[in-house]
User: Which sequence fits this backbone?
């Protein structure tokens, strides 16, 4: 059945994703044909961009660790670049900004090397201490604290947090021995649940939502959307966890709950940042979605939290 | 450019320029930076045409080259300051042969040689001339006053379209004095062609106004029109 050099589970999982995408494309085509007077451009762009995202994602998890880490490192690079494009930076910090970019290949190198101790402290400790020192050497104190803090916040979210997704790939085989370290399936579980949660919260909110959760930050987030989304994601976690990960059904459901709740938090935190900066979308890299941070916002929370949950229980 | 080099040498220079576009301009602007281009369809693909752009960085010309399809890029020639780019032999060779600039003498035009002679020749030969009417890179992300050269070009070739292009973010990435570009996403806005007019002051003010509007748009202040 499976003609590719990947595990059968991954092959079937990717086939399901392919079917979902085909279904989405067919639905959009059908809608456009049935109701030609309405403007379907954004929906069409959205679905087309999903094809690209999935293509890059499949590339990222189906080959070997080197390819995976290069692709995921590049995703971090795009996210960090988009963040820095949005936030105000000082002209004086030209070289410190380049040093901050250098943290990306270094961080992903620790992952490739499987050096967990270094991976987990490199950005929170070494980059955190080094970059202000490099900025002091430039000597401009005007706006120093603000510049140092925004730079570090960007590294923590777009590089440190997101790189936890990549570390799932190199986790050694788990204690149960049932999985021989197939990190690709762990990444798949995390990303599918996180993105599914975004969509589920949106759909529940659209159909039932009335009471707003935090109207000042994100007027579209409703209590019904949040609860409905979390419940659906918990259910999906319970279903998928035992198939894709070493988790038992109870732990898997709890992982779903964790991803549902923290995905929401990541989403609204990034909304608050965008609101503070006075932009609606974080960029326009992904037509129909906005910027890459608009797609990765939830993952900046779910990736490290799911990683540590799983690592504590099984590795 | 009275002496025409041999065909073999011209082929060699063409290959050098293509290698520069594919090997330097593309990776730097598309991977290291990243371009969001609005209204690419307004870009003139056939000469003669004049593209006027704001100037904040050496990255400007790399970005403008990237906007054009590879089949047209050899026909695109940027006018650049002779005093800066022809400082020494190596630099002059690189600027004129690899990058493909047309040297222009800045400041007080001498009486004997028209500083724009190279530009006239390029337009007469049907090329797409890239001009930075501010003359110098100036302060990052700040517009300087438009110089008169463009008006003189327009007077000689009044029927040639003048297309303004505004690039936002390149001065921040690598302004004057910086050597390595910091990765940022860059916005490129291409405007409708601008008509030449007899009244020099009014023409210059018109160019200046176009850039001011584009700058506002790029900064997200003006309501952005939906782009396909």
Assistant:
């Amino acid at each position: 059945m499976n003609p590719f050099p990947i595990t059968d589970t991954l092959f079937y999982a990717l086939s399901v994703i392919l079917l979902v995408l085909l279904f989405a494309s067919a639905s959009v085509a059908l809608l456009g044909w049935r109701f030609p007077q309405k403007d379907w451009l954004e929906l069409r762009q959205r679905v087309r961009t999903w094809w690209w995202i999935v293509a890059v994602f499949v590339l990222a998890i189906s080959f070997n660790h080197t390819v995976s880490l290069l692709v995921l490192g590049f995703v971090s690079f795009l996210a960090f670049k988009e963040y820095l494009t949005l936030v105000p930076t000082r002209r004086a910090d030209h070289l410190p900004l380049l040093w901050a970019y250098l943290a990306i290949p270094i961080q992903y190198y620790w992952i490739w090397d499987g050096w967990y101790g270094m991976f987990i402290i490199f950005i929170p400790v070494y980059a955190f201490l080094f970059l202000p020192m490099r900025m002091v050497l430039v000597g401009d104190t005007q706006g120093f604290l603000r510049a140092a803090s925004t730079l570090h916040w960007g590294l923590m979210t777009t590089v440190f947090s997101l790189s936890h997704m990549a570390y799932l790939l190199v986790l050694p085989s788990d204690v149960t021995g049932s999985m021989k370290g197939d990190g690709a399936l762990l990444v798949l579980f995390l990303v599918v649940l996180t993105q599914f949660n975004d969509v589920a919260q949106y759909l529940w909110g659209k159909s039932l939502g009335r009471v707003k959760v935090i109207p000042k930050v994100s007027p579209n987030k409703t209590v019904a959307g949040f609860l409905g989304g979390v419940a659906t994601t918990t259910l999906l976690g319970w279903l998928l966890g035992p198939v894709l990960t070493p988790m038992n059904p109870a732990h898997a459901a709890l992982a779903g709950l964790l991803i549902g709740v923290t995905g929401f938090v990541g989403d609204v935190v990034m909304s608050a940042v965008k609101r503070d900066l006075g932009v609606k979308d974080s960029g326009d890299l992904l037509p129909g979605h906005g910027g890459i941070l608009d797609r990765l916002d939830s993952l900046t929370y779910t990736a490290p939290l799911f990683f540590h949950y799983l690592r504590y229980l099984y590795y | 450019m009275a002496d025409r080099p041999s065909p073999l040498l011209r082929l060699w220079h063409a290959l050098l320029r293509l290698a520069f576009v594919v090997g330097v301009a593309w990776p730097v602007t598309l991977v290291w930076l990243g371009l969001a281009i609005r209204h690419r369809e307004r870009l003139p693909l056939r000469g003669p045409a004049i593209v006027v752009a704001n100037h904040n960085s050496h990255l400007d010309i790399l970005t403008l080259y990237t906007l054009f399809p590879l089949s047209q890029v050899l026909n695109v020639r940027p006018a650049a300051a002779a005093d800066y780019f022809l400082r020494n032999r190596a630099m002059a060779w690189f600027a004129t042969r690899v990058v493909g600039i047309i040297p222009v003498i800045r400041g007080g035009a001498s009486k004997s040689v028209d500083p724009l002679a190279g530009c006239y020749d390029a337009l007469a030969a049907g090329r797409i001339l890239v001009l930075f009417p501010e003359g110098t890179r100036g302060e990052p992300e700040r517009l300087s006053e438009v110089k008169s050269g463009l008006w003189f070009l327009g007077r000689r070739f009044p029927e040639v379209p003048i297309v303004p292009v505004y690039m936002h973010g390149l001065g921040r990435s690598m302004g004057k004095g910086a050597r390595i570009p910091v990765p940022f996403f860059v916005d490129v806005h291409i405007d409708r062609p601008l008509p030449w007019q007899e009244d020099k002051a009014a023409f210059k003010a018109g160019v200046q106004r176009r850039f001011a509007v584009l700058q506002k748009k790029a900064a997200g202040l003006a309501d952005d029109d939906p782009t396909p």
